[in-house]
Design goal:
alpha/beta, Rossmann fold, seven-stranded parallel beta sheet, two-stranded parallel ribbon, globular, binds nicotinamide-adenine-dinucleotide, binds 2'deoxy-thymidine-5'-diphospho-alpha-D-glucose
């Protein structure tokens, strides 16, 4: 792993991953971050690495096939880590189309460029030989498995059964990645992770939104009864899991990533209020998300037992540090909470 393409590196997980990888692996020659800078992309997330001579930012769209194939030619990547996506479930309910084009067609554009550059005879459809050491990693989500009842966990064998336009687009992308492995032998991995939290998360997602509203004494919009369960993973643990799969994963395999941290949404919201010393009267139960998945839980047995990965953060430490980060970076939050974000939330919630 010497020359790496990271897509969506200006977003929440991508920016954490770039910082993590450049700190962990000194032998990287070049890391290119291809990002369109949608409302969710923020180059401020990359200030700590912007002067690293190994790092380059390219402003562009993964759906731009010409740009993507030129990048493969000029940079000679041996590794792709594909984060770029439309990632917010609520937005997918009101604007599904861009989820399909970015998440499915954008993935196919990258797969085609990787196959053309890496296959030893790209014009021969029967050739399954690739340059040694190359890998394409698709960052997917546990949401492709659909929703769980009170018991059970998602394993890599759980049938794909997405319920939102977002998760359907991620599932579609996973199927295309799988097909490129089955048909062309492209060396791929798919990782399916549970809910991430940590620094640089856009304040449309549960934890930073609730933190921001609580600090401003605004109401906290909890969907329905707030008893939906998510399985929380610190973003740095997600980054270490991705690096583990890149370095030790068996190509063609899917790996679930989770931290065994199931919490009801209302529990998280109460924790945030208590940490900030704010009253629970700020909680407002609002109309539930259409098609809202009730529970997610990841069985991480495969990655822990076969690759030796384990999460380092407890939920208590992760949440303490995350709350601290948001409190210490009010400027970051304020610069993000503007424009598109405000319009979007006034459309979503009215005056929240
Ligand atoms: P994010 O919304 O914070 O960031 C997405 C990034 O992709 C942004 O920088 C955006 O500018 C960029 N982007 C969007 N469309 C693009 C395009 N057409 N071309 C190039 N760049 C584009 O997302 P995130 O929360 O960091 O999630 C990253 C990935 O991880 C996504 O694929 C998501 O599905 C997956 N994932 C997220 C979570 C989570 O809890 N956040 C959990 C599991 C999986
Ligand atoms: O499970 C992995 C997924 O986690 C990723 O694939 C997605 O990209 C990521 O956005 C996240 O999806 P969720 O829908 O679970 O995350 P979100 O932060 O939007 O919501 C978490 C839970 O909190 C969910 O049950 C909905 C609820 N919620 C969310 C918001 C924004 C509320 O009750 N109120 C809110 O205002």
């Amino acid at each position: 792993m010497k020359r790496i393409l990271v897509t969506g590196g200006a977003g929440f997980i991508g920016s954490n991953f770039i910082q993590y990888l450049l700190a962990e692996r000194q032998d990287i020659e070049r890391l290119v971050n291809l990002d369109l800078l949608t409302y969710a992309g923020n180059l401020e997330n990359l200030l700590p690495v912007q002067d690293d001579r190994r790092y380059t930012f390219v402003h562009g769209d993964i759906r731009d096939r010409k740009l993507v194939s030129e990048l493969f030619e000029t940079c000679d990547f041996d590794t792709v880590v594909h984060f770029a996506a439309e990632s917010h479930v609520d937005r997918s309910i009101t604007e599904p189309e861009v989820f399909l084009t970015t998440n499915v067609l954008g993935t196919q554009s990258l797969l085609d460029a990787a196959r053309r550059r890496w296959n030893l005879e790209p014009d021969n459809k029967y050739c399954r030989e690739y340059r040694p050491g190359v890998v394409y990693l698709q960052v997917s989500t546990d949401e492709v498995y659909g929703a769980l009842g009170k018991t059970g966990m998602f394993t890599e064998q759980t049938p794909i059964s997405p319920n939102s336009p977002y998760s359907a687009s991620k599932a579609g992308a996973d199927m295309v990645v799988r097909a490129y492995h089955q048909t062309y032998g492209l060396p791929v991995n798919i990782t399916r992770c549970s809910n991430n939290y940590g620094p640089y998360q856009f304040p449309e997602k549960l934890i930073p939104l609730m933190l921001h509203n609580a600090q401003a004494d605004k109401s906290l919009p909890v969907y329905g009864d707030g008893m939906q369960i998510r399985d929380w993973l610190h973003v740095k643990d997600h980054c270490s899991a991705i690096l583990t799969v890149l370095e030790k994963g068996v190509r063609g395999e899917v790996y679930n990533i989770g931290g065994n941290n199931e919490r009801a949404n209302i529990e998280i919201v109460r924790l945030i209020l208590s940490e900030l010393g704010k009253p629970e009267s700020l909680i407002t139960h609002v109309q539930d998300r259409p098609g809202h998945d009730r529970r997610y839980a990841i069985d991480n047995t495969k990655i822990t037992t076969t690759l030796g990965w384990a999460p380092a953060y407890t939920f208590e430490r992760g949440m303490r540090e995350t709350i601290e980060w948001y409190l210490q970076n009010p400027g970051w939050v304020e610069r993000v909470v503007s424009g598109d974000y405000l319009d979007y939330y006034s459309r979503m919630y009215g005056e929240v």
